[in-house]
Structure formats: structure tokens, C-alpha cells
Amino acid sequence: VAYPHVPATSFATKFVHVSTNKIRTPVRVVTFMPDGRRLLSCSQNGEFTLWNGMSFNFETILQAHDCAIQAACWSKNENWLLTGDDTGRIKYWQTNLNNLKSVNAHAEPVRGVSFAPTDLKFCSCSDDTTVRVFDFARAAPVHTLSGHGGDVKCVDWHPHKGLLASGGKDSLTILWDAREGKKAVDIHAHKNQVTCLKWNANGNWLATGCKDQTIKVFDIRTMKELENFRGHTRDVTAVVWHPQHETLLTCPRRVSTSQALVSFMRHSFTWRSSAPETMSGSDGWNPAQLTPLS
Predict the structure, then answer these.
(1) What Å distances lie between residue 114 and 92, 131, 165, 166, 260, CA to CA?
(2) What is the C-alpha to C-alpha distance for residues 6 and 4, in angstroms, rounded to an integer?
(3) Is the dihedral of CA 269, 271, 276, 279 positive or negative?
(4) Which of 59, 153, 184, 267 ranks highest by number of CB atoms within 10 Å?
(5) Residue 72 near residue 80, CB atoms below 8 Å
(6) Distance in angstroms (rounded) separating the CA atoms of residues 230 and 217
(7) Quick check: 224 and 238 in contact, CB under 8 A?
(8) Beta bridge partners of 145
């Protein structure tokens, strides 16, 4: 039973199941389907595998890309899925996994994709050091944002505004004005590659994870660092805010370790450990049952 006033009751504490594909290959991205009953894994060999979330067996295997899939993102209206691969190509998918479009978005591997709040645009980042904003309907670039001094490893669109956040190999986190196509501000906070970042649904907090084994949370209203978490001993590979409790954050790392849940109470953060061991670079919450996957 989960209680709205007790965030600690709203995350899974019992490991349930491991699902293994017939052909063993690294899984780069995992995401629940919009109905919350099935989940989709995207692998190194370019395959989609659709898994049943109740029986844990696979339902469909589809050759989606010709190479490793590095990024995937659902639209806000949950009608479209974007995936990006090692060749710099981004593909449009319907919920029945029918491929409608393919775009040569970058010259190097795509590392992240994210939809605008209206779904009219989306952004992507790449090892070619750029962040690009695309018109979704025309599948055409609107802005190319240059400012990172190395590979751009992650990008996320603000939940309410025309504001992008990106992190890269140059240790920088950059905020961008998506409407004007200009840099807004540099955040010099980490000492190594920024591997992941995520906006909170309230639009005020930005969480970043890094190869220096730290997780930082920023308040963009004051441009101040709220907290700096130290506890991981390897790279932090993903950060995901809880869909209901804005004070909960889950963060896996690269090698076998327990995930960590971070709770925020009156500007005081505390660590809580739970969930299974993981090596995944992707993490997510079930939209129906509020259980995490990796």
C-alpha cells in the first residue's frame, strides 16, 4: 500500500525478476510502453524486444536499427516513440512499433532525445558536440546548438518552458534557449563527464549525474546547487525522478550495485538504498504501477 503523504512507501523494495533475451547482447535503453503493461528494451544489435510486464516473457522481437540503439523517448501524448542510434539516425515509431520516418540527425552517435512539452518539437544530442532542435512534423532541424567542448552525452527538455539542459564530456552542464537557439548559462559543477540529467516535473530542480560518482541537484530559480550526493563508487548512469513524489529520485551506477533513492524533505536530502543490482545505462518507472526498471 502506498500513501501520498509518505513518499517512502512509493517505491519497490523487493526484487521481482530477471528477463534474458535469447541472443545475449547489451541492453542500452529500457522503457515502459504507455499502457504500463509491457516494456521495451533496445539493444546493442539494434533490436526491439517487447516484454510482458506480468509474465516476464518476451512477446515480440523486431530489428529496428542496423546498429546499436543509444536513446529512446516517448512523446508527452504517448503516441510517438523516438529512437536514436550509433550512425546518428533518429526514427519515428507508433505505439504498435510501426516505423514511419527516419532522419539523418547527426554525423556521430545520438546520445539522447527529448520531446518539447507540446510535442511539436524535439531535441537530440550527439558525440558530434552539438544539440539540435527539430520540428517534429517536418522532421527538419530548427536550431543547431554549439557550445560543448566534447561529446554531448545527455539532453532533457524543460517540462513547461522552451529551455533545454545538456551535459557533456567537457564536464559542463549547459542551459539553452530553445526558441532563440542560444546558450543561456553554463553550469560548472562537476569534475568529470556529465553522464545524465533530468528535470523535475515541477520545473524548478535539475538533477545531474557524473563519472565523478556524484549526483547534484540545482534550483534554476536561484542557479544554486541544493545538494551534492556522494555514495556511489562508480559512474552514475541515469537519474529519474519519481512520477508522483517530486522528492524522490532513483540513480543506478555502471557496475553491480544497489540503486539509491534520494528523498528531499524541507531542503534536506537523505539516501535510501533499494531495488536490484544493475549495469544498465537507462532507468524508468512503470506509469501504471509505479515500480522501477533497469
Answers:
(1) 13, 11, 10, 11, 24
(2) 6
(3) positive
(4) 153
(5) no
(6) 12
(7) no
(8) 131
pLDDT tens for the chain, 294 residues: list them. Answer: 678 888 777 777 777 888 888 888 999 999 999 988 999 999 999 999 999 988 888 899 999 999 999 999 999 999 999 999 999 999 999 999 999 999 999 999 999 999 999 999 999 999 999 999 999 999 999 999 999 999 999 999 999 999 999 999 999 999 999 999 999 999 999 999 999 999 999 999 999 999 988 999 999 999 999 988 887 888 888 898 988 888 888 876 554 333 444 433 333 444 444 443 344 455 665 655 455 565
The rounded distance, in Å, linking the Cα atoms of 267 and 259 is 22
The single-letter code of the amino acid at 104 is N
Cα(183)–Cα(166) distance, rounded to whole angstroms? 11
**What is the Cα–Cα distance from 45 to 48, expressed in whole angstroms?**
9
Half-sphere exposure of 12 (CA within 13 A, CB side): 17
**CA 227/CA 196 separation, integer angstroms:** 16
β-strand pairing of 292-293 with 284-285: antiparallel
91, 74 contact by CB (below 8 A)? no
